[in-house]
Amino acid sequence: MLNSGTPGAVRRLGSDWDLTIIDPSPAHLYQPGLLFLPFGARDDAALERPRARTLAPGASWVEQEVERLATAARRVVLAGGDTIPYDLLVIATGARLRPELTPGLVEAGARGDAHDFYTLQGAQALRAALEHFAGGRLVVNVVEVPIKCPVAPLEFLMLADEHFTRRGLRDRVELVYATPLDGAFTRPLAAALLGRLVERKGIRVETELATAEVDPEQRVLRSFDGREVAYDLLVSVPTHSGARLIEDSGMGNELGFVPTDQRTLVAKGHDGVFVLGDATDLPTSKAGSVAHFEADVLVENLSRAMRGQAPEASFDGHANCFVESGFGQALLLDFNYDVEPLPGRYPLPGIGPFSLLEESRTNHLGKLAFRWLYWNALLPGRPLPVSAQFSLSGKRRPPLEAAAST
């Protein structure tokens, strides 16, 4: 949140502006690290840092819950009833898990048969469950989309394939991916390649499965079209929605995400309000890379707003993500609103060092190294030699048949 005319302003904003951050959480969680906890990683403490250590010098931190946003009055209403005025507001409230929206899912979790890995507590409990899982059917179910990090369920399954292989149990474990999508991914080339990859690993895919309920007594997942998928252990990716305060403010769509101009990041129908990251309804991945690329556009448009200028329509939906495929290998996807993931090299055309739409050890090491980069460069806002704009340079578009046979 940016206030004008307040003493102690952050220097880069100018003497008549300051920056206020409202967040009730005392810790900041590195969410990509949750993927590895179920498979034996014990670096739980390294995934969190005190919130105060992640804030820029000169920023004010209000450690309180927000009840709602009164955008017509340009005020943030805190849970205790106090209000904070703003001139410009950035909503970065993320997404929350809603297991209670699926009948039976909370009860299955209480029995110990259903877990998630999208929260720290969930990933820790799933780690304990996998340690004692000696065989049976493990089902990963995406209840509905959108979700944070759309490739994470596939990564989990491929890491599970490695995990049970190394334990000598793979022939006793059936891995099933139950997804509402019509394939392993949403973009044709990536969907073909990832579909081929999971098939090679012996992972069964149940497509277009719209989850209606979980039967915790029978340990069965049921879809609206009458299909049933039995499980011994259910790994659920529950329905995601926007923050409750967005709903309470009357700003959200049917899932509580903020309708956002996909090029300017301006909240539709709300003057002086911008939206960042998972809180948006943008037609691109809810992923950390997207928030990072959005941030460059957001900073420019905030600066323009401070000068009384119209925002630039310059965000192109750029997203990229490493996809763990097991056994020390990973792929990298790079795409935007208009261009699907293509093969090539990234970030330097023809050089890389990362390969696109191709498994490599370098990509795996890049994913592991990203944590250091996150804490030491991305979060502090240090400039990186990677453009926020998607580029076709160094990429090629092969025939779909070639990608499917890769």
Total helix count? 8
What's the pLDDT, averaged over the residues?
Answer: 93
The figure for the number of domains is: 3
Number of E-state strands: 24
Question: How is this structure best summarized?
Answer:
The protein is an alpha/beta fold and 406 residues long.
Report what the structure shows.
This protein is α/β, with parallel strands linked by helices. The chain has three domains: 2-96 and 241-306, 3-Layer(bba) Sandwich (FAD/NAD(P)-binding domain), CATH 3.50.50.60; 97-240, FAD/NAD(P)-binding domain, CATH 3.50.50.60; 319-404, no CATH class. Helices cover 23% and strands 25% of the residues. The chain contains eight helices and 24 strands. The chain has helices at 105-111, 120-131, 152-166, 188-200, 244-248, 288-306, 361-378, 400-404; strands at residues 2-4, 17-22, 27-29, 48-50, 60-62, 66-70, 75-78, 83-85, 89-91, 95-97, 114-115, 136-142, 173-178, 203-206, 211-215, 220-223, 228-230, 233-237, 240-242, 273-275, 319-326, 329-335, 344-348, 352-356. The strands form nine sheets. Strands 11-18-12-13-14 form a five-stranded parallel β-sheet. A three-stranded mixed β-sheet has the order 1-2-5, with no helix packed on it. A hairpin with a 2-residue loop joins strand 21 and strand 22. The termini are far apart. 39% of the residues are buried.
Name some characteristics of this structure.
406 residues, alpha/beta, FAD/NAD(P)-binding domain, five-stranded parallel beta sheet, three-stranded mixed beta sheet, 8 helices, globular, disordered C terminus
